[in-house]
Specification:
alpha+beta; Helix Hairpins; two-stranded antiparallel ribbon; two-stranded parallel sheet; 4 strands; PFD2; PFD_beta-like
C-alpha cells in the first residue's frame, strides 16, 4: 500500500490513479471487443439462416454446441438459430449502453483526478507545461 502523508485517505498516489485509469480503459476495451464479437455472430447467424432456408428440413446438418459438434436436422437447428438471431440485438444494445456508461465513467474519473491524456510525440511541450502545475498526466501511445 502507498502511504498518504498529510493528505488524508481520499488522496491517491499517481500510480494508483494511473492504475485505476488503466483498469477502466481495459474494461472499456473488453466491452468493445465483446460488442464486435456479437456483431460478427449476428452476421454469421444471418448467413447460416439464409443458407439453411434453401435446404430441405429433413437434411442433416452439424452444429457446434459448447465445443462439441452435434448432428441434427435442419428442422431442429433453424428455429434455434432464429431464436439466437432475435436475441442478439437486445444483447448488443445492452452492451452498447454499458460501453456508453463506461465512457462516461472514464470521463468522470479523468475530471475527478485532473488527468490530461497525451498522445504521440507532439505531447512533449504540453508535458513541460504540466510540470509547472499539480496535475496527473498520462501519456498513451497511439
Amino acid at each position: 500500500m502507498a502511504k498518504n502523508t498529510g493528505k488524508g485517505n481520499k488522496s491517491k498516489s499517481n500510480e494508483e490513479v494511473f492504475a485505476g485509469f488503466q483498469n477502466l480503459r481495459s474494461e472499456q476495451r473488453q466491452l468493445a471487443n465483446k460488442i464486435s464479437e456479437l456483431e460478427m455472430d449476428l452476421n454469421e447467424h444471418k448467413i447460416v439462416i439464409e443458407t439453411l432456408r434453401g435446404v430441405e428440413a429433413a437434411r442433416k446438418c452439424f452444429r457446434m454446441v459448447g465445443g462439441v459438434l452435434v448432428e441434427r436436422t435442419v428442422a431442429d437447428v433453424l428455429p434455434e438459430l432464429e431464436g439466437n438471431r432475435d436475441r442478439l440485438p437486445a444483447a448488443l444494445q445492452a452492451l452498447n449502453e454499458q460501453l456508453a456508461r463506461k465512457g462516461q465513467e472514464i470521463n468522470d474519473y479523468i475530471e475527478r483526478h485532473d488527468i490530461r491524456v497525451q498522445r504521440g510525440a507532439d505531447s512533449e511541450p504540453a508535458a513541460a507545461a504540466a510540470a509547472d502545475t499539480k496535475t496527473n498526466v498520462l501519456a498513451a501511445s497511439a
